Amino acid sequence: MPLDGGGATPWGSVDELQRAFRYHGYIADRGLATAIHLAVALDRPLFLEGEAGVGKTEVGNVLAGALQTQLIRLQCYEGIGVAQAMYDWNYLRQFLAVRASEASDRNVALDDLFSPEFLVERPLLKALRSEPAAVLLIDEIDRADDEFEAFLLEILSDHAMTIPEIGTIKAENPPVVVLTSNRTREVHDALKRRCLYHVIKYPDVDTEIQIVRLRVPEATEQLARDVARAVAGLRGLSLAKPPGIAEALDWTSALTFLGVPKLDPDVARGTIGAVVKHEEDLEVAMNLLAEVTSTDE
Ligand SMILES: Nc1ncnc2c1ncn2[C@@H]1O[C@H](COP(=O)(O)OP(=O)(O)O)[C@@H](O)[C@H]1O
Ligand SMILES: [Mg+2]
User: Fold this and answer.
1) Which residues make beta-bridge pairs with 172?
2) 46 alpha carbon – ligand 1 mean position (Å)
3) N or C: which end of the chain has fewer CB within 10 A?
C-alpha cells in the first residue's frame, strides 16, 4: 500500500510481509518484519545491526526477491572510497579522446573529458540511476573508515549524488536502502539519524528450528531440534566465534548428508568442523556438545 509521501509496498500488512519473506526462504520475526515494512513504506533506509551470521545480509537479498527487483550490493572494506563506491572516470577513454583530438588538431576541452560520457558507474551511482528502483545493500558499513559515512549522507537523505565536475544527480526511482553493521565499531549518529534502526539477535530455539526446516527441508524434525539446541548452547559459551545461522544450516546439511537422524556425542565430535571454526573454541565446544547431546531424550 503506498503511503503518503512514501514508497509503494506490495504488502498491505506486516503479516503479509512475513509471508512473502517466508516464501523467499526467510523467517522474519515481528519486530524485523515491522522495521522492513516501515522502511519500504516510508521510504527510509533500514539500518540493521547484529552479530555475524544472524541474517542481516540476507534481508537485502530476500527484499530484492520479494520486490522483484535487482539487488545492488556494496560490500564495504577498509579504505573504500568514492572511486570504488560511487563513480570513477574512464581514464583510458579520456586518454584516447585526447589522442584523437591531437591527431585531428582539434583541442578537447577539459570540461568535455569530465562529462557523463566518461563516467564509470560504481554501485551507489548505479543504484541511483536504476530503473525500476533497485534494492541497495550497503553491507558491513562498520568495515569502512568512518569518513566514508560522510559520502553516504546525501544519498541517504536526498537520494542524490553530487559530482563536482557534472553537478547533482538525483534518483528518479530512489532505491530501497538496507545498511548492515556487525558492530565492530560504532557508526555515527548522523548516519543513523537518517535511518530506521533495528537490531537482529540470534533466533530463539523454536525460530531456529523453523529456519533450519525451511532451509534444509530434507532434515528430520529431530535433527533440526537437536542442532538448534546445540547451537543455542554453543552461543551461550564465550567462544571466539559463536556459530551463526549459516553454521546451523551447514551442520544440519552435513548431518543429513551422512544420514544421521539425531545428534549424539560421537556424531557431534565427528562433524564439529561444520559449526566451530576456531581451534581455541574446540575443546570447550566439545565438552558442551557431549553434555547437551547425551541428555537429549
Ligand atoms: N531468519 C532467517 N531465515 C532464513 N535463513 C536465514 C535467516 N537468518 C539467516 N539465515 C541464513 O543464514 C545465513 C547467514 O545469514 P547472513 O545474512 O549472511 O548473516 P549476516 O549478514 O548477519 O552475517 C544465510 O545463509 C541466510 O540465508
Ligand atoms: Mg552479512
Assistant:
1) none
2) 17
3) C
Q: How far is the CA of 91 from the centre of ligand 1 (A)?
A: 39
199 close to ligand 1 (CB < 6 Angstrom): no
With cell 558492530, the residue in question is 183
Q: State how far the Cα of 170 lies from the Cα of 261, in Å rounded to an integer.
A: 56
Does residue 154 contact residue 124 with C-beta atoms inside 8 Å? no
Q: Is 245 close to ligand 1, i.e. is its CB under 6 Å away? A: yes
Burial of 72 (0-12, 13-18, 19+ CB in 10 A): buried
Starting from the CA of residue 73, give the closest ligand: 2
- Taking the C-alpha atoms of residue 216 and residue 250, their distance in angstroms, rounded to an integer, is 9
Please tell me the residue having the least CA distance from ligand 1 atom 8: 55
3, pLDDT greater than 50: no
pTM score, whole prediction:
0.92
